[in-house]
Amino acid sequence: SADFIFAAPELADENIELTAVYKNGEKVGYYKSIDDAFAAMTDADAEYEIDLAYYSSFVGALTHSVNATKTPAVKKLTITGRNEFVGEGYYDNNTPLYLAADLTLGSDVELRNLNIEPTEDAVIKLNGNTLTIGGESIYIDTRIVGTEKDSALVAATVRGAYVFGGIDVYKLDVKSDSIILGADSHIVYGSYGNIYTQNGADVDIDNQI
């Protein structure tokens, strides 16, 4: 058998999930997974961004996953995927992101250009923080909960904002043209104007703003 001078890199693995991490706008480096990137975020006063690779020459199209149960306690965290606009009347193609368990926010978080699906009945817990869903579009099949004061969901996509898992939040601020919510959605403070529901489901808004 042949001898090699260098060992094959760990990233040449069939389960590769390349993520580029930025700290205050400066690239920190690449990590194999989102969980590894979370572990590297140790500066509580910094703003971090994770840029998810959409395609790898090793394995083709990539699907990313989160096994962690809490995002890092930093100033702000942004997770950005890729968007491919198919055309009017069609769903956008966004980077897939799977949640393996309930995910609690450790800081304000922005999610951009992602299709988020739970592997079980996982939910996203705001925990007194603000979750902004932005980018071109976003599709979320998991439920978003956070009725603690200061918990807020902000919809700020260019086109569609879809939360098919439904929400139960203290405040909903819709800066997008509209947001479409799943069944059994409840909002303590929100506006009826640009909130729609999937398949005619009911949405409860206690106080209009």
Describe this structure as you would to a colleague:
With 209 residues, the protein is mainly beta. 3% of the residues lie in helices and 47% in strands. The chain contains one helix and 23 strands. The protein is globular and about 45 Å long. Residues 56-60 have low confidence and may be disordered.
CA gyration radius, whole angstroms? 18 Å
The biggest beta sheet, please? 13 strands, mixed
Compute the number of helices: 1
Mean pLDDT value = 86
Instruction: Compute the separation of the termini in Å.
Output: 72 Å
Which range best describes the helical content: under 10%, 10-25%, 25-40%, 40-55%, 55-70% or over 70%?
under 10%
Quaternary status: single chain
Structural class estimated from helices and strands: mainly beta
Number of strands: 23
> What's the shape?
globular
Percent in strands: over 45%
Helix/strand order: EEHEEEEEEEEEEEEEEEEEEEEE
The stretches of 5 or more residues where confidence is low (pLDDT under 50) are 56-60
